[in-house]
Design goal:
The chain is built from six helices and no strands. With 133 residues, the protein is mostly helical. The longest helix is centred in the N-terminal third of the chain and has 22 residues. The radius of gyration is 18 Å and the shape is globular.
C-alpha cells in the first residue's frame, strides 16, 4: 500500500470518464497488472475444474469465454486500444508458433512445485463438487 500511495497510478475510470465501474473504486492508486494476474489465476483454476468435472458439454465455450474475459481485464488499463498493438494477446500464451513469434518461452522446470496438503484437500473438494453434475 505504501508503494501504491507513493506512485498514485490513476485507475482506468480516473483516466477515461467513459469507464463506469459497477462498484466504487478505492481512493488509493492502482496496479492494473494485479487485476490481470488475479483474472488469469481464476481462469487457470476454473479451467482445470471444468476439465476435472468433465460434465459440461459446452466446456470449450465456457473456457473461451473465461479466457476472453481475463484478456479483457488484462487490457483494461489501456486508455486507447490500437488494433495494431500486439503487446498482449492471450493466444500468444497458447499457440507455440505465436509464442515464438512474440519472443515468449515457457520454462517448464520453473513451473514445478510440491503440492501443499491444504491446497490438495481444497482441490479434491472442489473437483468432487462436479461429480454427477
Amino acid at each position: 500500500m505504501i508503494v501504491k500511495t507513493a506512485l498514485a497510478v490513476r485507475r482506468p475510470d480516473q483516466v477515461d470518464g467513459r469507464l463506469l465501474p459497477m462498484i466504487p473504486t478505492p481512493g488509493h492508486g492502482s496496479f492494473p497488472s494485479a487485476h490481470a494476474t488475479e483474472a488469469y489465476a481464476v481462469l487457470t483454476v476454473l479451467e482445470a475444474l471444468i476439465e476435472a468435472w468433465d460434465s459440461q458439454a459446452d466446456r470449450s465455450g465456457r473456457v473461451a469465454m473465461l479466457r476472453a474475459l481475463a484478456e479483457r481485464i488484462a487490457e483494461g488499463g489501456a486508455t486507447v486500444l490500437d488494433a495494431t498493438d500486439v503487446d498482449f494477446f492471450d493466444h500468444d500464451l497458447r499457440d507455440p508458433a505465436a509464442m515464438a513469434a512474440a519472443g515468449l518461452s515457457v520454462d517448464s522446470q520453473a513451473l514445478r512445485s510440491s503440492p501443499m496438503p491444504a491446497f490438495s484437500w481444497l482441490w479434491s473438494q472442489a473437483a468432487g463438487e462436479g461429480e454427477g453434475a
